[in-house]
Amino acid sequence: MSDKVAVNIATSKGTGILHNQAIVANGVVYCSGQVPADLTTGEIIAGGIQEHTHQCIRNLSAVLEEAGSCLEKAVKVNVFITDMKNFAAMNEVYVQYWGAVKPVRTCVCVRDLPRGADVEIECTALAGKESKL
Fold this sequence. Notes:
By secondary structure, the protein is α+β, with helices and mostly antiparallel strands.
């Protein structure tokens, strides 16, 4: 039996993803970074940083659900943005997705992201949907 289980959303199998969207190991879900792409087509959605942040988090939510977890179980989030001028606008969206006990987070400004994205978000979450927090 494997110590880790790969997680991939069935609708994204034809989108050219070259890695697993998540790995579950020892009760923890490690999610790969999500760019603001439609999970069915793989295309970056239209819009600016706020629409893109929503899409990244919706994608993470879908991956976590597939892994048997949920956003509320996230303990660590890493955000990568290409322009710190977008930090406040990204945060306006980000805070809508977690309750009073938000996951710890790092936000890093990077020069480029895959496929020309302006934001990418990854997270680590506890496995299991039942909240015991």
